[in-house]
Design a protein that fits this description.
The complex is a heterodimer of chains A (152) and B (290). Chain A has 152 residues and is an alpha+beta fold. Chain A has 2 domains: 2-77, Roll (Ubiquitin-like (UB roll)); 86-150, DNA polymerase, domain 1 (Orthogonal Bundle), CATH 1.10.150. Chain A is 32% helix and 16% strand. Chain A is built from 5 helices and 5 strands. Chain A has a 5-stranded mixed beta sheet with strand order 2-1-5-3-4, with helices on one face. In chain A, strand 3 (49-52) and strand 4 form a beta hairpin. Chain A starts with a strand and ends with a helix. Chain B starts with a strand and ends with a helix. In chain B, strand 4 and strand 5 (68-72) form a beta hairpin. Chain B has helices spanning 12-22, 35-40, 77-82, 84-89, 91-98, 103-108, 111-117, 124-130, 228-234, 241-254, 265-288; strands at residues 5-8, 26-29, 48-51, 61-64, 68-72, 134-138, 143-147, 152-154, 157-158, 165-171, 178-184, 194-202, 210-218, 225-226. The chains are: A alpha+beta (152), B alpha+beta (290).
Chain lengths: 152, 290
């Protein structure tokens, strides 16, 4: 057992964990933040994407113990109370959500992109989201949604 | 994932001491983008994990005009991709990094980690070999330098001894010529089905004369392969269509691709020819523009 101290969505957390716990499992199972999902478990689908120190990472491939002392932001940490983040609003407005399973990962990846590049081109968006797979939408409306936030 | 005993080390000395103690039962963990994947599939179950991710002295990208580029063990793919000096002076590396996996993987995974994983489909290895890079391997007793060209010994096997850590990659300054990295893969974030790294130096007077060239193929053998017959064929000659075609044919002949999910051996041999053609042409155009 190891002691993990991290900040998740602004809240300081201390927990005892097995070192073989991935960040995704810790967030989803231990903290109950079920927006961060394990889709493929091998870092390809992007359903597990969260922001670690402001950068998008695949939480299913990161051991929780490696995030000692760091800040993590999940989809649950985007809205400000009842007020949705502009990205979340855009996804709803543009119809970029069908089954919703890829959505948390898509939004967190997009958030990571916009923090680095506030005004991305379509190609920038598509490249940034290449690690997030969607089986429903065909990606077009997702890209539109992200671009609409970027060009505000 | 099986359980393991976990050590978070604060410096290289500590990490090497632990490696000496536990040898083959231990694995070094940096970004874990390759290692954790294997551990989740239970293909690898180390008894001890030595985490070096928190060693600040290993996270750097340094450039010196005389010495070249030095990439620390913890430099992420993303930091190499975005480095202004890399984009300016070692463009093939930035180009290669932008095609590697996806942004989140590049944000946490390390360049050195990719090499140590020893995957013949590595994007990093061919690009570094094309630039004549070397790696520093550090153990309890000291360090030694191994050219990246000699680093891979077999499928997922490298020259690194059980008690050693790769602490740095060194890329000599690129005084002449330009490089190009292209990969063929079925989907955007896939590993290369065929990878191609070429660095070419064109004659400063006759811009169509090839002064020197390095052609390195990835994913078409148990290790990255230099296409030496093709290089010898082109060196000192004009790069016309016929010669490039022959170089492509020689590369395809010298490669050792295997039939797998990405295609048959024959299919890959065709793709090699296409990639040699395209990569040489684009590298030569870039080199001539210098």
């Amino acid at each position: 057992m190891e002691t993990l101290n991290i900040t998740v969505n602004g809240e300081a957390i201390e927990a005892q964990i097995d070192p073989n716990t991935t960040l995704q499992k810790f967030l989803h199972d231990t903290l109950g933040l079920t927006g961060t999902k394990e889709g493929c478990g091998s870092g390809m689908c992007g359903c597990c994407t969260v922001l670690l120190e402001g950068k998008a990472i695949k939480s299913c491939l990161v051991l929780a113990i490696q995030t000692q002392g760091m800040t993590v932001r999940t989809i649950e940490g985007l809205a400000d109370g009842e007020t949705l983040d502009p990205l979340q609003k855009a996804f709803v407005e543009k119809g970029a959500i069908q089954c919703g399973y890829c959505t948390p990962g898509m939004i967190m990846s997009s958030k990571g992109l916009l923090e680095e590049n506030p005004n991305p081109s379509e190609q920038d968006v598509r490249s940034a989201l290449s690690g997030n797979l969607c089986r429903c939408t065909g990606y077009h409306k997702i890209v539109e949604a992200v671009l609409s936030v970027g060009h505000r | 994932m099986d359980s393991f005993e976990y050590f978070r080390t604060r410096n290289v000395k500590e990490a090497c001491a632990l490696l000496s103690q536990y040898g083959e039962e231990a694995k070094i963990l940096a970004g874990g983008q390759s290692l954790v994947t294997l551990m989740k599939q239970k293909l690898v179950s180390p008894t001890y994990i030595i985490d070096i991710k928190g060693i600040p002295e290993l996270d750097y990208i340094r450039y010196d005009e005389a010495d070249g580029l030095r990439i620390g063990a913890l430099a992420t793919h993303r930091s190499l991709e975005k480095s202004e000096i890399v984009k300016d002076k070692f463009f093939i590396l930035a180009e290669m990094e932008s095609s590697l996996a996806s942004v989140p993987v590049r944000n946490w995974g390390t360049v050195v980690g990719n090499l140590c994983h020893g995957d013949p489909a590595s994007d990093v290895a061919p690009a570094l070999i094309a630039l004549g890079a070397d790696a520093t391997l550090t153990g309890k007793e000291g360090s030694r330098v191994v050219p990246v060209e000699d680093f891979f010994t077999d499928y997922f096997e490298t020259a690194v001894r059980p008690e050693e850590i790769v602490t740095e990659i060194h890329v000599p300054p690129v005084r002449e010529g330009e490089g190009c990295y292209y990969k063929f893969a079925h989907r955007a974030t896939d590993l290369a089905a065929v990878g191609m790294a070429i660095h070419v130096i064109m004659d400063p007077v006759d811009r169509e004369l090839c002064k020197d060239i390095r052609i390195v193929m990835g994913s078409v053998g148990p290790t990255p392969l230099r296409s030496k017959r093709a290089e010898d064929f082109l060196r000192g000659e004009r790069l016309d269509e016929k010669r490039i075609e022959e170089a492509a044919r020689l590369s395809s002949e010298d490669a050792e691709p295997t039939t797998d999910i990405n295609g048959s051996e024959d299919y890959k041999r065709e793709i090699i020819k296409v990639l040699v053609r395209r990569t040489i042409k684009d590298a030569a155009v870039r080199a001539a523009q210098q």
